[in-house]
Every structure is written in C-alpha cells, then in structure tokens.
UniProtKB/TrEMBL annotation:
<feature type="domain" description="Ku">
    <location>
        <begin position="55"/>
        <end position="184"/>
    </location>
</feature>
<comment type="subunit">
    <text>Homodimer. Interacts with LigD.</text>
</comment>
<dbReference type="GO" id="GO:0006303">
    <property type="term" value="P:double-strand break repair via nonhomologous end joining"/>
</dbReference>
<dbReference type="InterPro" id="IPR009187">
    <property type="entry name" value="Prok_Ku"/>
</dbReference>
<feature type="region of interest" description="Disordered">
    <location>
        <begin position="256"/>
        <end position="349"/>
    </location>
</feature>
<keyword id="KW-0234">DNA repair</keyword>
<keyword id="KW-0233">DNA recombination</keyword>
<dbReference type="InterPro" id="IPR006164">
    <property type="entry name" value="DNA_bd_Ku70/Ku80"/>
</dbReference>
<dbReference type="InterPro" id="IPR016194">
    <property type="entry name" value="SPOC-like_C_dom_sf"/>
</dbReference>
<protein>
    <recommendedName>
        <fullName>Non-homologous end joining protein Ku</fullName>
    </recommendedName>
</protein>
<keyword id="KW-0227">DNA damage</keyword>
<comment type="function">
    <text>With LigD forms a non-homologous end joining (NHEJ) DNA repair enzyme, which repairs dsDNA breaks with reduced fidelity. Binds linear dsDNA with 5'- and 3'- overhangs but not closed circular dsDNA nor ssDNA. Recruits and stimulates the ligase activity of LigD.</text>
</comment>
<feature type="compositionally biased region" description="Basic residues">
    <location>
        <begin position="328"/>
        <end position="349"/>
    </location>
</feature>
<feature type="compositionally biased region" description="Low complexity">
    <location>
        <begin position="288"/>
        <end position="327"/>
    </location>
</feature>
<keyword id="KW-0238">DNA-binding</keyword>
<comment type="similarity">
    <text>Belongs to the prokaryotic Ku family.</text>
</comment>
<dbReference type="GO" id="GO:0003690">
    <property type="term" value="F:double-stranded DNA binding"/>
</dbReference>
Length: 349
C-alpha cells in the first residue's frame, strides 16, 4: 500500500471529529491493452486535438470546457465559474448517516477505494471510526467530491482498513421495467427441486480460485508472436445442445456437475441434443440374482401351501362324507325304531 499513489487527499468528517486521510484505488485493471497501428508498416496511430474552426492542432493549455446546448450552441464554462459552486465536500468525506449494509442496493455500487490514515495524528480517530463500524455492524453513508462533481459513498471495514465504495445516486439507477419476460410462465415444484439440486451440486467455491483464462491465453499469444513462433491452437468450445425440455436440461446439468466432481462416472458419449435421462435403476446385477432366488423360493412356498390346501380340502371332504354317512345311518335306524314302535301289539283274552 505504501507504493500506491493517492488520488485524493482530504479528511473524514465524523461529527466534530476530523480524520485526515488519503484516497487510494482498491482495485486495478489487469486486462491487456492494445495500440492502434498502421497495418502496412506498423506505425502508431495517434489522435490529435484539432480545432474545427481553424483546422489546426492545439495544445492542452488552449483547451477548456464547454456545455453543448440542445440547439448545438457551445456555452464556455471556466474553472472560475465552477469555483463558485456550493461544494462543501470539496476536500471532505462527510458522513451523513449509518445504515445496515443490506439497505444498499448492489446496483448502486461503483468504484472502490481504500482510505489510508494521513499520518500519526489520524491513527486514533481512524481506529475509533473503524471499531465503531465493526461493533455497530453498519456502514456509513457519506458525500464527497471527486473529479469536479459531488458523489455518494459507502464506508465499510475490510480487515483492519476502512474502504469506501462510490455509489450511484438513486436517480441514476434505472428501474427494471420491460426486462422480465412478459409471457406468463408457471414453474412447478419438480422443476424447482431440480434447480435446487443443481445449486447444491455446484456448491460453493473460493473466489481466489477463479482466474481470467482469456487474459492468460492472450498473454501466450503475445509471447509466441514476440518469439517468432506460431500462436497456440485454441480448442473449439463444445457446442451447446438445443434445449428441448427444461426438465431434461436441469437433469443433464445435475449429472454433468456430479461427473465434474467425480461423484458419478462420465458417460461414453454426450448426447447431441438435450433429452430426458432414462430412469435410474434401483438395483444392480447381484441384487437381481438375489431377487430371482427369492422369487423362486416364494414360488416353492406357494406351491407347498397350495398342496397343503388341497390335502386339507380332501380331508375335509372325506370327513364330510363320513359325517353324512353316519347321519344317514342314524336316520335309517331311527326310522326302523319308529316303525317297530308303531306296530300294535296283540292283546290276549
């Protein structure tokens, strides 16, 4: 941080407390930039500032500011005109409120800066503000002036430092009108469950593990050209299949995420188009054999039960026949007895 040049010097106004600070950039642009050249001889192409009326190049000292009116008229604005503007935050970051961090819409986030303490006298009040922000679990909303205009900022704690995010003014954030689909769509629970499964499968990641693969490939191309070698061949990206079914796309996405994490074996060939996955089998070869044996045993048990039932039925039938025969015999005997009793006896004189 000691080697980073400050872009603004001023103070934080915290009530009646003033904290001298230096504003330094918290981010840096790592992208590779190119120069425009003449393709025939490699000469640099430069832009020159030319006055349209005199048709000649002018120096920086001759250039000023002007506001173009609706009819195209240019109204000159001097630095003296701007110096009379009521800008109390010209050299001050004025804290106006403390709010919960979730009150800030991420759409308002702009450039990020670190606020470095301006010398030893600033150490005590700087630490006081930092610890107060930590304990309150809030962020500070402030106004400050930078590059000729007043801006809105948010102060928060990052490790042992105070960072400030430039914020867009609320009226600079557009409403999302006309952005969402205007077609009525219904999402069912099964689709949401698959989306949740995909989110769980992808899981979390450490942001430090992410890197700019495009910039690295571009550096390889530049290095190869500088060494007089052919640039490396870049493999063509896999063509995405046409989404025919949202459910199938979600299922395939979950499967692909699990394969990438080694949770499932990769399929031999990927389908050209998105299709429904086949139903998963709940058992393998060994369980199938066991199931077969079990089925055979069940059949044998059923056969035994059937034979037993037949024997029981036969026994029951035989018993019924014997009972019926005994009953018939008893009835016959009863009839004979009744007949004997009904025969009149001869009386003797």
């Amino acid at each position: 941080m000691l080697h980073v040049r400050s872009i603004w010097n001023g103070a934080i106004s915290f009530g009646l407390v003033s904290i001298p600070i230096k504003l330094v950039n918290a981010t840096e642009n790592r992208s590779i930039s190119f120069r425009q050249i003449h393709t025939e001889d490699g000469g640099r192409i430069r832009y020159r500032k030319v006055c349209e009326l005199e048709d000649r190049e002018v120096t920086q000292a001759e250039i000023g500011k002007g506001y173009e009116d609706a009819d195209g008229t240019i109204i000159p604005i001097t630095d003296e005109d701007l110096s009379h503007l009521p800008l109390p935050t010209a050299k001050t970051i004025e804290i106006v409120a403390f709010v919960p961090a979730d009150r800030i819409d991420p759409l308002q986030m702009d450039s990020a800066y670190y606020l470095a303490a301006g010398g030893a006298p600033a150490a005590k009040p700087y630490t006081l503000l930092r610890e107060a922000l930590k304990r309150s679990q809030k962020v500070a909303i402030a106004k400050y002036a930078l590059r000729g205009r007043e801006r809105l900022g948010m102060l928060r704690v990052v490790e042992d430092a105070i960072a400030m995010h430039g914020l867009l003014w609320p009226d600079e954030v557009r409403a999302p009108e006309g952005v969402a689909p205007d077609t009525h769509v219904t999402v069912n629970d099964k689709e949401l469950d698959l989306a949740d499964a995909l989110m769980d499968t992808l899981g979390e990641i450490e942001l430090d593990e992410l890197h700019d693969a495009y910039r690295e490939a571009l550096e390889e191309v530049v290095a190869a050209k500088a060494a007089g070698e052919a640039p490396p061949e870049t493999p063509e990206p896999a063509k995405a299949g046409k989404v025919l079914d949202l459910m199938a796309a979600l299922e395939n996405s979950v499967r692909a995420a699990k394969v990438s994490r080694g949770e499932e074996p990769a399929e031999p060939k990927a389908a050209a188009q998105v299709r429904r996955l086949p139903e998963r089998k709940t058992s393998r070869a060994a369980p199938k054999q066991a199931a077969g044996k079990k089925s055979t045993a069940t059949k044998k048990t059923a056969a035994k039960k059937t034979a037993s039932a037949k024997k029981s039925t036969a026994k029951t039938a035989q018993g019924a026949k014997k009972t019926a025969a005994k009953s018939t015999a008893k009835k016959t005997t009863a009839k004979k007895t009744t007949a004997k009793k009904a025969t009149p006896r001869k009386r003797t004189a």
